[in-house]
Every structure is written in C-alpha cells, then in structure tokens.
Amino acid sequence: MHEISRFRLDEITKRVISILVLGLIIGPPVGASNAQEPNAAKASIDSQSAHHNPPDLSVVSEHQWAAIDRSVDRALDYLHSRQQSDGSIPSMEIAKPAVTALYVMAALSAGHEPGDGPLGDSLNRAIDYVLSTQIENGLFTLERVSLTGPEDHKAGQLALYNHGICGTVLGEVYGMTDATRSARIETAIEKALAFATENQRRPIRANEHLDRGGWRYIKQVPISQPQSDLSVTSWQIMFMRSAHNAGFDFPKESIDQAINYVRMCFDEPTGGFQYATHRSEQITRGMTGAGVLCLFLTGNYDDRIERQSGAWLLRQEFTRYNQSRQHDRYFYAAYYCSQAAYQLGGEYWSKTYVPLAETLVAHQHARGNWDEDHHNREYSDTYSTAMAILALTPPYQLLPIYQR
C-alpha cells in the first residue's frame, strides 16, 4: 500500500469528512437515476460494471510512489515560482484564466488548500485572479466576445474553455475560503451557471439532432461543420458537477441533454469517443477519456460503454513522451485518460497509470516543469505542467469532483 505522507494523510481525512457531509446534504451525482432507461444499460450493485472494480494501488511500488510524490511537489513549486503579481499563472494571454485555474486544481489535487499551508496565500491570489476575469454576462474571459458578431477565432474558442475550467475550480474551492471570498465565489458561480445554460440553449442552424445538448465555441462555425464538440462540452459538464457538489442548482434538462450529446459521440465500432458527432476520424485518447469521465461524474454508468472504452484505452500508450496523432494532445490526453482509468479501475487503471506515471516522472525537468505540449506550445509549459500533475494525482483522491 502507498505510504502517504502525514501532510496528505491529514488532508485526505479532512476531505473525506467534508465529502461525506456534502453527500448527505445534496444527494447522488447530478444526472443519476435509479430508473432503467432504454439504451442506457444502467449498472446495479450486482453488475460487473467497471465502476465496481476498484484500482489496486499496490501495483505501484513504494519507490514509485515516493518518486511520484516528489514529482508532484516539485511541479507545484515550479508553478508557484511562476505566479505573477496579479495572481495569474503565465500562458498565452487569453488562456491565462484557465491555466491559472488549472494551477489551483493541481494544488488541490495534491492536498493544498486556499489560505492554509505553504501555498495558501498563492491559491487565494490565484482564485482572486480567476474571479477578476468574469465579465457582466457571467463568462470568464479576458476578451470581450460576441455571441453573434465577428471575432478572433482563438478568443471565441478559448472563452468556453476558460469558462468551464474556471467554473469547475470555483466549485471545488467554494466553502474552503474565508466568508468574504466565499460570497464572491457564490455570486460568480451563479452567474457562470446562468451563462452556461443559456449558451447551451442557443439556436442551432443545422443538424440540431446531432448537436443539441453540447457546447461549442462562442461564435457558431459554418453550417457544414458540427455546432458542438465533446472537448468544450466535457468542461461544462465538469463545471456543473462541481457546482452541484457545492450545492448550486441549475436546470436538470441541461445535464440530461449534455449527457445525451456525450453518448452520441461514442463510436460503437471502435469503443472510442469522437471529438464531435460523425467525426470518426477524430477518435482520440483525450476525447475517449473525457467521454468516460463525463458519464462517471454524472452517475450515468453504462456497462457496455465502460467495457468497450476500457478495451480501447488498453490499446493506447503514453510511453512515447509528448507525442500524439494530429487531433490528439499528449498532456490533455494524459489528464483525461488517467482520470477516466481511475474511475474504470482494475487493469484499465493499472495498465494506463503505471507506464504513464513512469514516463512523466522520467521526463520532468530539474526545475519541476515539463515541456510545452507538442501541439499546444502557445499555452506554455505552465499548462502542460498543471495537466501532468492532474494526470499523476487521481490516486490521491483529494479533489471531490474526481472521487471514485
């Protein structure tokens, strides 16, 4: 068994108590249902569904655990050292809200909390920065983007990623901060949820049956292309899951429609998930991990999808460091697949996590950072470093949203 440090053991104890209390207050996962639905194959406690097959932490040796712990701590030290005076983590300018939020999430996943311990002040400043990037309509962004007018493509793309990632982190830290900051977070989450649900209901000009329920970039793309995609959608689902954990309300149909969209992205012949419906050429590790994770986080257990996606995942590998196919992203895929594999458990986790962790630890630089992602160099090594931490820390089980 992994010998957890006293610091992380104390954090685990505190988090478990708080999560148990939250569970008594707000009930089952968002979107979960006891009713059997057509084509949903809900798992029961007697099923062989993967979510009843816990990860075996003993497959990682004590030496490996110690190396992982050191790697995570060094990486957090690096990100902390890069923090700017305004609380942000440097990256491509319009990606800074999301990258700063990922730093907070990475620190939380390793047992740190805002206002407490060696990163306490740093995390408070990062949270304040994230809050400062929300505009009047509830969107987290550094650029004013129009729902209908002309705009820079990258700004419109990153706005929804900023929104989902920032919203997710605020849901995770809500209740961990002082009363004044907590009140600001509450207002921000309510405004952000209103924006997300309104944006999801935007009229779709074509192929509504293929796109309804998902999210896309701020400005709609040409009619010949899908109006929604799983990558952006998955972050909005995680935001809703995190907000639900924190006790916030939003229309149930939003998550129901979102999960229906996730299911439409599942590719039965391969077992993978597509970037968008009818995009079989874009079945990637990142999207398959995202699809599985979205189903688990919302309580939509599906034995058929779990088994097929788990088998697909076992055919992938992460030992070719920072390399991926055209539509895939190494660190993005590492994050999603590690989280999904932990949810799937059993050999899905051990055969994914162990080689991934060994590869990440072996390629970490002396300063604690990892290289910029081969396909997303513009986001800087701060982004890849935060994602690597999140890929290494699922076994710590310290982030409420990702608890199994």
From TrEMBL:
User: What sections of the protein cross the membrane?
Assistant: none
Q: Which CDD domains match?
A: ISOPREN_C2_like
Q: Does the keyword Transferase apply?
A: yes
- Keywords of this entry: Transferase
Any one Gene Ontology MF annotation carried by this entry is: transferase activity
- Is Transferase there in the keyword field? yes
Name the domain of life. Bacteria
Q: Which SUPFAM superfamilies match?
A: Family 10 polysaccharide lyase, Terpenoid cyclases/Protein prenyltransferases
Q: Where is this region: Disordered?
A: 35-56
| Coiled coil stretches, renumbered | none
InterPro entries xrefs: Terpenoid_cyclase/PrenylTrfase
Any idea what this protein is called?
Prenyltransferase and squalene oxidase repeat protein
Q: What lineage is on file?
A: Bacteria, Pseudomonadati, Planctomycetota, Planctomycetia, Pirellulales
